[in-house]
């Protein structure tokens, strides 16, 4: 089973409506807009700038489901010191095909959940594409993450949905991120993972999950992980610090883009944030 999710377009007279349904698209004055996170996002719908999101009901036989942790410096599938300029040339950030693949046959309720997730990926895609290339987040140690880097990894990322009761090599029963030699894969369990993220209003949980995993693929975040793991002893305290930094990265870019997210305080993700307010994104 392979479902291609293409958003229906409709003409809108007299400007954009005040609001829309999540994932709804409208066409106005030559531009397509998609509604998500409380705003209309412009999307260039030329052939060179369409992101296709597909849902596959069965796993391809030639797909090697990752049985390793994404950041292990001893992992033969992980490239240390990966840099954007070394990325494989399969696609540009405006020519993405994001696959949502299942490793099991979902029932009707699970398929609806997976489809809702795939539709939210389209909304997030529109937001990420609007990120300026020169948008920059500077971390406390001086390492930087740019809009161009995040858009590159996003264009290469695929998602794998696993059956209930899945436990990953990283010990989590929700999800894991695998850099996969520069072809990133995010795996998520359908019950604890997608089911848990779906429970938050306005797709906030899906947004938080997607941006958190994307933040893991940034070169700065991977460098920090490799530093923690350099002594082959990734401690509980180091993991908490690393995941907090990942949350900081995700919140900074979601806040800049106006995407709904866990704001902080009592509304915080696991491991929380290191600062009360989002870190600043600069343009330079």
Shape by Cα distribution: globular
- Report how far apart the termini are: 45 Å
Helix content: 25-40%
Mean pLDDT: 75
Structural class call reads alpha/beta
Extended strand count: 12
Number of domains: 1
If you compute it from the alpha carbons, what radius of gyration comes out, rounded to the nearest whole angstrom? 18 Å
Features:
alpha/beta, 19% strand, three-stranded antiparallel β-sheet, 284 residues, 12 strands
Summary, kept brief:
This protein is 31% helix and 19% strand.
How are the secondary structure elements laid out?
Elements: E1 2-5, E2 25-28, E3 31-36, E4 39-43, E5 52-56, E6 97-102, H1 108-129, E7 135-138, E8 144-146, H2 147-156, E9 158-162, E10 175-178, E11 185-189, H3 190-198, H4 204-216, H5 219-229, H6 236-257, E12 281-283
Parallel strand pairs: 5-6, 6-9, 9-11
Antiparallel strand pairs: 1-5, 2-3, 3-4, 7-8, 7-12, 10-11
Helix pairs in contact: 1-3, 3-4, 4-6, 5-6
Summarize the structure in words.
A hairpin with a 6-residue loop joins strand 10 and strand 11 (185-189). The radius of gyration is 18 Å and the shape is globular. The chain has a 6-stranded mixed β-sheet with strand order 1-5-6-9-11-10. The protein has a 3-stranded antiparallel β-sheet with strand order 2-3-4, with helices on one face. It has a 3-stranded antiparallel β-sheet with strand order 8-7-12. By secondary structure, it is α/β, with parallel strands linked by helices. Residues 1-14, 44-50 and 57-95 have low confidence and may be disordered. The chain contains 6 helices and 12 strands. The chain has one domain (48-60, 88-283). The chain starts with a strand and ends with a strand.
């Amino acid at each position: 089973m392979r479902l291609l999710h293409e958003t229906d377009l409709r003409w809108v007279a007299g400007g954009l409506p005040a609001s829309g349904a999540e994932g709804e698209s409208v066409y106005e004055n030559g531009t397509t807009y998609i509604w998500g996170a409380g705003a209309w996002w412009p999307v260039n719908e030329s052939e060179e700038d369409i992101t296709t999101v597909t849902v596959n009901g069965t796993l391809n036989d030639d797909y090697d489901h990752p049985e390793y942790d994404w950041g292990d410096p001893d992992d033969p599938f992980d490239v240390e010191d990966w840099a954007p300029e070394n990325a494989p040339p399969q696609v540009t950030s405006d020519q993405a095909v994001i696959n949502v693949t299942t490793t099991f046959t979902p029932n009707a309720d699970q398929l609806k959940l997976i489809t809702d997730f795939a539709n939210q990926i389209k909304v997030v895609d529109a937001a990420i594409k609007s990120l300026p290339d020169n948008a920059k987040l500077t971390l406390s140690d001086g390492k930087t993450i740019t809009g161009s880097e995040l858009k590159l990894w996003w264009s290469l990322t695929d998602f794998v949905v696993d059956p209930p009761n899945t436990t990953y090599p990283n010990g989590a029963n929700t999800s894991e991120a695998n850099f996969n030699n520069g072809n990133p894969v995010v795996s998520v369990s359908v019950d604890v993972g997608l089911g848990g993220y779906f429970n938050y209003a306005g797709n906030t949980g899906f947004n938080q999950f997607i941006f958190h995993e994307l933040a893991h693929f940034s070169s700065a975040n991977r460098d920090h992980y490799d530093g923690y793991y350099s002594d082959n002893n990734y401690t509980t305290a180091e993991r908490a610090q690393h995941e907090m930094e990942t949350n900081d990265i995700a919140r900074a870019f979601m806040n800049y883009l106006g995407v709904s997210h866990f704001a902080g305080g009592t509304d915080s993700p696991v491991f929380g944030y290191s600062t009360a307010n989002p870190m600043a994104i600069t343009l330079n």
